[in-house]
Amino acid sequence: MLLDLRSFRGSDALVERSYSPSSFSGGDRVDYSLAAPVDLSIRVSKDGDKYWLRGRILAQVRRDCCRCLKAFDVNMDLEVDLRYHPQRVVTEETDYEIAEDDLVTAFYSDDQIDLGGLIREQLNLASPMKPLCNEACRGLCPVCGVDRNRSECQCDASWQDPRLDALRSLFPQSQDAGRTRKD
């Protein structure tokens, strides 16, 4: 999945590739799997030893809902807009503040850009931290584990901290528990 930069003769080229889901197996731990081939269509512009990649990534990602744990597929259409600079070895340790412009800058080495790494990075950045199969997902019952989207249960899901039982015994339950006492 490497893009050989030595093969570019002009200042502008179109790169279109399709990768099977098995091309991305192994490697980094991710919270999704690919359900269909990933299509990459980018325009590579060259300016000296710098390259600008602009285009699209089309992918179908399979995720697990964080509420009901069911698998669901999401179609992703991601825009790519990155600058690639040659990687140079940094010999001194200094503090460096990241500027806004640095967020669209990446690095290449050995006259190659790892397109697989680019695709993985963009999919990870576009993935939600808490994926939901739908916004109205009711999730699993924390007591019996039934999927609340499919059936109802009669479990009491309220929880009281057992460490506060001694304090609760000091205060009798009354109807005006919501009111504050004035002394």
In short:
Helices cover 10% and strands 33% of the residues.
Please supply descriptive tags for the structure shown above:
single chain, 183 residues, mainly beta, 6-stranded mixed beta sheet, two-stranded antiparallel sheet, 2 helices, 10% helix, elongated
**Biggest sheet overview:** 6 strands, mixed
Tell me, briefly, the overall form.
Answer: elongated
How many strand units?
Answer: 8
Q: How much is the radius of gyration in Å?
A: 26 Å
Tally of separate helices: 2
The parts where pLDDT drops under 50 for at least 5 residues are none
Question: What share of the residues does DSSP label as strand, in percent?
Answer: 25-35%
Task: Provide an overview of this structure.
Strands 2, 3, 4, 5, 6 and 7 form a six-stranded mixed β-sheet that branches. A two-stranded antiparallel sheet has the order 1-8. A hairpin with a 2-residue loop joins strand 4 (38-47) and strand 5 (50-64). It has 183 residues and is mainly β. The longest helix is centred in the middle third of the chain and has 12 residues, at 115-126. The mean pLDDT is 85. Helix content is 10%, strand content 33%. The radius of gyration is 26 Å and the shape is elongated. The protein has helices at residues 115-126, 165-170; strands spanning 2-4, 12-19, 33-34, 38-47, 50-64, 71-86, 105-108, 112-114. The protein contains two helices and eight strands.
